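subagent[fold] <- orchestrator: predict structure for attached chain, return tokens only, no commentary.
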Amino acid sequence: MRATTTLLENNKVMLTVEIDDAEMDEAIDAAAKSLAKQVTVKGFRKGKVPKNVLIANIGGPSVLRSEAIRESLPDFYARAVADSLIDPIGQPDINITAGEEEGQFTFEAEVEVRPEISIRGQRELRVTIPSPVVTDGEVDAQINRYLETDAVLNPVDRPIVTGDLVTMDVHVQQIATEAEPLDMTDFMYTVGTGSIAEGIDELILGLKAGEDLQMNAPVGEGVVATYELKLKQVQERVLPELSDEWVAENTEWTSAEEMREAILVQMRRRKIVEAQMSQRDAALVALSELVAEEAAPEVLINAETNERLHDLGERLAAQKLTLEMFLQVTNQTPEDLLATLRQDAVRAVRVDLAMRALVAAEHLEATPEEIDEELERTAEAMGVSADLLRNNLRDSGRVVNFSAEVSKMNASKWLSENVVYVDPEGVEIDHAMLRADQSVEDDGAASVADETDDETGESTESDA
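subagent[fold] -> orchestrator:
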């Protein structure tokens, strides 16, 4: 086989393929064996019909050759893709140019390939993630939650502050509806919870017992109500003193120092995990924004959208739910669901293109040794031999895509080491802190399949 490529417009490639006579003969023999199992010839068992007898009974050599071409053309195309190292993302438009009846068999395949995107600014990325740093105030707040279980309520005659407990009479009347008004007497409200209505906390701060408050606020979609609040009593929570005795009697710890240290360790681990969980996705989103949305090929977006819809259907089926039931429960229309899936698909495609562009920009292409090592790991995880997986990748035309996934693993490592992470206040986070206290050590040995699913939501098979 000989395969050559010619670049066309609109990100397409013309693949010209010449099949050797020996390969064509093998295809004809394979087609003959296949037909022999299907054709009934008097005096012969199925599968045992001699080739010359088979040819005579199906209409001649041209019929057998036609069947061989029909059966082998997908394999010829996949092998040509592997040999020419192109990366198709759509279905090919194949045209047989010679040898359909006799002579050397040749064909052309016009196919859209994955675009090669250039990015700029990958070395200046600043990504915001939750802070892994625990402040003294956060520890104090957590300790106060324990103390609040033993708090005393004292009436106060001062302006209301957040955390106060206010006793009030509440009257709620919906505007422009026939709904009956709602009255609550001696309702106890903790300022800061926002449980009565949106915006109440901002208005009640600074008022005192004996004053009234009126406000309008939504109570549902398109419905607004008037709230009348009569503030009758304000109480503050007085927390017990934090002492070794109180800690020993009311908690699992034996001293205040032990309690504070344990809470600090727990909160630090939790915040580091939260930061680590946000780290990867946040970096990928930031990198994907270096790729214009219009650069994402429609064929990839459609394939990714369909894949996500298929996955959703399978998950629902496993829970004995239908798509119609899901739409009803989530209050969505089919158009809403498709729009959401498409938005996620666009992001996934942009991430994939950006990661491939990062590989090219920073020269992170996987070495043959890295590809072989990953192929062996993937084969072991699949329970097959490395040679079988290698042949399957070639026969299915996925050699280039597999190599790209290994290269993207290098890009993922580069990204985690070179992105500047900052907290919501813009303070830079030490990379060493993000690597600390991990429950599972990351040795970089994630499989290609894991890397692909995590980064793009795509599978390597879907692009072939």
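orchestrator: received. Logging for downstream: The CA atoms of residues 304 and 345 lie 5 Å apart. The radius of gyration is 34 Å.
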